[in-house]
Structures are given as C-alpha cells and as structure tokens.
Amino acid sequence: MADLRLGLGRWLDLPEATSLDLPQLRCIGNLQVLIENHLGVRSFKDGVAVVATRIGPLEIWGQELTVGAVDRDAILVTGRIEGMRYQRG
Amino acid sequence: MAEGLWLRLRFRGPTEELWQALATSGTPARRIQPQADGLVFDIPFHGLRPLRGQLAGHGRLALVGYGGWPLILRSLRRRPWRAAWPAAAFLGYLVASSFVWQVAVVGPPGIPKATILAAAKEFGLRPGVSRGAIDPFRLGKRIELKVPGLIFAAVRLDGVRAVVYAAPALKPPLALPEAARGALFAAERGYITRVVVLRGQPLVKAGDTVVRGEPLVAPNQGQSRGEVFARIWRRLDYTFPQRSERSYASGRRATRWYISWSGGRKWTPLGSAEPFRQARRATTIWRIPLWSVEVARYTYVELRTLKVERTRTYAELRATSMALAAMKRSMPGAQLLSLRTEVRRIGGNLQAEVYIEAETDIAQAKAGGRTRD
Fold it and tell me: pTM of this prediction?
C-alpha cells in the first residue's frame, strides 16, 4: 500500500512527505523540535515525550522538556533535547 | 491564541485521556508541563467547553491562571478609535443625567399646580438646572411656605425628573352652628394619622389634612372628647453671632477695705494690678450709726474676657438642642419623627434652620385649652 502511494505520488510529482503521510520534524539545535503530521501525544512524563506518528511512536527525551504547543497539525517540544528515536510500532 | 483570553489549567488524572481529549476536540494547547499527578497547560478560553465535554468523568480540571485579552478588548486594542463613540455617548449620558429635564407636580385635583411650578421655578427648580444644585428637602419646605393653601410639599428627584408632591390644606368652615359648641378643633395644621374619639362624632379620618381651627370632632351631647393625632411640620430659626466675647470668673479674688463717714469715703489700695472689675460682695465690719461711720470690706472677683469663635457644628448642635427643648415645651407628648438642621453663614452670623416633623395630638376645645382624657 505504501509503495502504491509512493508511486502515485511520484507519478503526480508530489512530495514524498505528502504522499506517504509521513511525519516531518524540524529541529532548532537542541532547543526545539516541531513535529508535523503527528497522531497525537501518547505520553509525556519523566522527561520523555512520546508522540504517535504513522510510522511508529517518536520518543523524545531531554531535560526541562515542555510541550510548547499542540494542535491538530503540529506539536512543538521545547527544552534541552538530548535525543530522539522511533520506537518499533 | 496569545492574543485572546487564555486559561492555564491543571489536569489531574490519566494523561492519555487528556491527550485524547485535546486531539478529539481540536483544542490547541500550549506550554504543557508534566506534573507528578498530571499536566499543566494553556488553552484558549473558547476551548474549555469542548475539552471538558471530552474529559467528562476522566480526571479533573482546575483553573490555575489566566491571561490575555477578551475578544472584544483585543479588537479594541487594535482599533482604539472604535471606543470613541461609546465613550462619547456614555459621557453625554453622564452629563445629561446630571441635570433636571422635567418638573412635575403630583397632588389631588384642585391643587394649584401652576402656582407650585412658579414657586419651584422661583426657588431654582426648572428644566436644565443641575441636580447637584437642588436640595430637595429645603426646596420642598420653601414651596410649602411660599404657596398659600398648601399643608405639605416635598420634592423628589427621580432621575432627570423632579416631582413636587403637594397636599392642599382643607379650608375650615366659616362658622359652626350654635349646636356645634363643644366640638374639638385643630390646634394647628397637619396630616391626620390617628383618630380616637371617646365622645362625639369624628369629622376627619386618617389621611386627611387639616388646618388650624378646623373642626375635628363634632359634639353629640356636651363637650366632645378624644385625641386626634397628626403629623405636623415646624421650622425654627436661630441666629448665633459667629464671634462674641464672654466674661468668665478666673477664680482670683482681691479684698479692699474702706472707711466711710458722713460726706466721705476712704479706700485702701486694691493690692493687685490685675483688672478686678466687679465687686461681688461687701461685708460691713464695723458701723457707728450715730456718727455715720462705717468700716467695710469689698471682695472683688476677677472677670476675664474670652473671645468665642463659633463654628457651624456649634450652631447646628445648639440650634438642634434649642429646637428640641422648644418642641418639648410647646408640644408635650409629641413624638419626633424627623429633624434636620441647616446652618448658613450670613454676614457675621450663623443662621440655623431646624425643620421638625412630629406626631402629636392636635385636638383642642376652641374656647378652652387642650382636651385630654
């Protein structure tokens, strides 16, 4: 299914992030990370924020983490980010 | 969201429910910080209701702060000139409502309304006059005294409308028939509040107004008896000089001796430089009537002059005290209903006007004194 959508997107000359509905991450150093195209926050405690995405939960950890903003389109996580990784979905 | 009114909330409960509620309701949240038992976050004011709906039964929300501008104020902040018209209208309302724009007279038929309005105009109550320049109590009393045939007048300011409430005095009959001898008559004008007739036929009832000399109780056989209580009004004027001098005894005394004989008197020196101005007592010590010789002693008391500067408070208290004493003398047994004292400074004097409203028995036999059982 993903291959079909990827092929359709390439045929229509669409960006892969759009055609595959993948999450997009924009980082500003280790201070902020903006996660677009998310599926909501799964958990947020003990310095670890887990954001659900289509390709699996995205785990962000660091110090003084704060979810600066959350709405339907994007989640902004601020603080001193030490690492990010996708968990196995 | 930062430009609108926002709320800072604390959520206690399973955070998964909150994340689900935020996602379902579409409420944007900011500054989300984890707590030991939940989360603290900001949401716009309009997002509170849908969020609470989604969280029904799952966890608890508590308000911990708020900020921002409400929507209408946010709009005004961007376009402050929009507030100019409402502000001007409000200012106009404030100015307009501080004036009297209508003067009306309320009273029973037959009352001389035009005369009352003319009197009110003469004393300053007319459309366009400032509300603050009107003293309703004083104005009512002035109208009452000015307009003949009135027993009562009061002014009430009702918004921009001034209403003069007036009650006419009933005219007494010109003459009573011979058979009416023994009736009770009104000692003064008033507003009847209670009628207690022991003997005779009452001619008035509570709520009537009477003038001095009006018959109150007609006799059946012999002298009628009873009490007719009425509310009466009196104005008493007192004038106090603002500055005066008063002598008082300082307590110091001095003694002076003299010896008198036929054709002469010799004084001893006073023995003091103080102005002992008044002799209070002379004591004869020794007298020989045959030779008309007398030795006597005078005791002088020092009187000092005290300059008194009277204040408005003094005049008010003194006038009130004098008015109450006068009322007690002239109307024993009267019940005081209200009293008001006004003091004005006229020339070098303090003029006090005391208005008294009291309830008393006004029934009296015309030929004799007051009739009381």
Answer: 0.39
